[in-house]
DNA sequence: ACTAAAAGTTAAGTAAACTTTACATTTTAA
DNA sequence: TTAAAATGTAAAGTTTACTTAACTTTTAGT
């Protein structure tokens, strides 16, 4: 699944570690999701959504659309 | 996490088994998610969203908002 | 060029999503 | 009211999301 996390994160001038702390996950989790190694859980997707003030659908792109 | 799956599903006159087949998951998975036993993965949430033609946020309610 | 911070990656483990099988209970309809 | 369909539930297994720890590579600032 594609996502805009890196763009959104850098727009806020946050490091991966910053994001990890804010969202209460590990830095490796942020890195892996940004790099598309796996998808976030739905609750974590909601956390991204709230932080970036964007609907989940605008952050994550489920290609089979 | 709260959700409106049962209402949405019955509005379409589908059984849990119907939904399961359509979304390519097991009937037990549909049942468990409807009953709030666990949250769907993000890809499965997207499938619900497409089927019901509603944003993920209107189907699932992440209470800590 | 050097250094430090940030990002990337890997391994080994835990937790949660999801599977299959099986059976019990509830709902629906003839 | 009884039979079939639908729903609920549980156990045991697999897969995927996530953790910690450790190390390497890349990026940015002086």
Automatic annotation (TrEMBL), chains A, B:
Which residues fall in a coiled-coil region? none
* Alphabetic keyword roster: DNA-binding
Q: Is Transcription regulation a UniProt keyword of this protein?
A: no
Listed GO MF terms: DNA binding
Domain HTH cro/C1-type positions = 5-59
Q: Would the keyword DNA-binding be found if you checked this record's keyword annotation? A: yes
InterPro entries recorded: Cro/C1-type_HTH, Lambda_DNA-bd_dom_sf
User: This chain belongs to which protein, by name?
Assistant: Helix-turn-helix domain-containing protein
């Amino acid at each position: 699944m594609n996502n805009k996390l890196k763009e959104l994160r850098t727009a806020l001038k946050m490091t991966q570690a910053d994001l990890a702390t804010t969202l209460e996950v590990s830095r490796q989790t942020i890195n892996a999701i940004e790099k598309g190694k796996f998808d976030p859980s739905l609750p974590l997707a909601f956390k991204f959504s709230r932080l970036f003030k964007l609907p989940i659908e605008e952050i994550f792109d489920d290609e089979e659309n």
